Amino acid sequence: MKSRIHPVSRPVVFRDRAADYAFLTRSTADSDKTIEWDDGKRYPVIDVETSSASHPFYTGNSQVLDTAGRVERFERRYGDASKRG
Fold first, then answer.
1. For position 74, what pLDDT does the model report?
2. Which domain of life is it from (predicted)?
């Protein structure tokens, strides 16, 4: 393997503020902000908007939103497929 072509991988904390959840993993991402982890060491911290702790797919809180009657408008325009034979 060639040397000096791969980015440096280091321990990094990813923090999901919406779910108040953080996890330590290895990453090539870097940050100027740091956080003290459970082991007493300081690690770079990267704030993310969504993680598996807050994403609707993983939490099971997904909702189907019918904004402005889109389903009804689609059925009016193209017909209801369940009524076709």
1. 80
2. Bacteria
